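Model the whole thing, not chain by chain.
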Amino acid sequence: MTWIQPTSVDAVVRARAENPEAIIVAGGTFLGILVRAGMLEADDWISLQDVRELTRLQSLGDLSIGAMVRHRRLELDEDVRGIWPGIAAAFRAVASPRVRNVATVGGVLADADYASDPPSMLVASRAVAEIASVRGSRRVPIEELITGHYSTCLEEDELITRVIVPRPQGPAVYRKLRTRSQEDRPSSSVAAVVHQGTVRVVVGAVSDRPHHFADLCATWRPGNEDSAREIGAGYAERIEYIDDNRGSAAYRRRVVAVEVRRALMQVSS
Amino acid sequence: MNLALRVNGRTIHADVEPETMLVDVLREHAGLTGPRVTCGVGLCGTCTVLMDEQPVSACILMAPLAQGTEITTIEGIPEDDAVVRCFDRHHAFQCGFCIPGMVLTGRAMVAEGHAADREEIREGLGGNLCRCGCYLKIIDAIEEAAQ
């Protein structure tokens, strides 16, 4: 068994290209649960803990979040809270401070766990992932990055290096519905972000991946309760829901209609 | 792999597989039994330790990730610590099983100014479960320690 700690992105992607079976460890919260439960075994690990360049957080123009930036830092950073309040709120909603102190931005996206808080807000905020490999780098909108349950469009030699979030021009709201306890995952995760008079509503945690329906959003009349209700009903109708411990499919269909309506009214005021 | 970890101000050495969790290294190689394994998924808080002053779940943290950090367990907290004294004064425990995690989480909240009111304390303790149900007294204790 090997555990290596490269100190640069170049060294990480080289190591991964040479050994695609090796598992990349970022914060390790998700992997830790899988390993402890006996659901994941590996001979080789590539840890990102010593890759300093992945811990950069820059907020001068667009928000640039290194893949190893911890949830807690986004929750508490003054610039993020002031300029990207939706992003700060979505990362603050995750689990407990113990998890947020360790879990990373790259990790939550690469895991593509349907029941995470940040993906809906990142999609609503038009965030883009920068991805590196020995073959070069490319940018992929988060909307296209997450393709289904625990699946992404990442090739096996690729690494998410940072996430770029455009500077918002309007209000943003994150609504997490908890059905059990405070540190629980969302039963539904609704993000609404207004940009130049149009809204992007994204619903996560109720099916295999976050959902955004641009045609429904295009009908939005800000501040109009009927318009918000119709869009909520449209989202509720179109999504194919899952049953889990946090809510049945039928329950989720009902609450998504309400949560989308409330989110739209909140970004109106 | 050979690990050298800084725990409570001293260095401990352990020869373990990379996927060994920090809590097991602390308990089995360092004899520190304050951090406990209960839920095993980072939810209940009995395995809480501080990593560079920040609370983390040691039951789901692969031990190599703790290299280069300062780990503090309840054993590393002085007996006359202000938060410990407040827990004592408010009798904020019954069986005591969750208390190492409660005290360490409370200390971090107080140190960082995230214990301004009862609501904030409640939220900060959201991931620490007490099956005896001593929450009100635990919140009282942290509230007083923060003043």
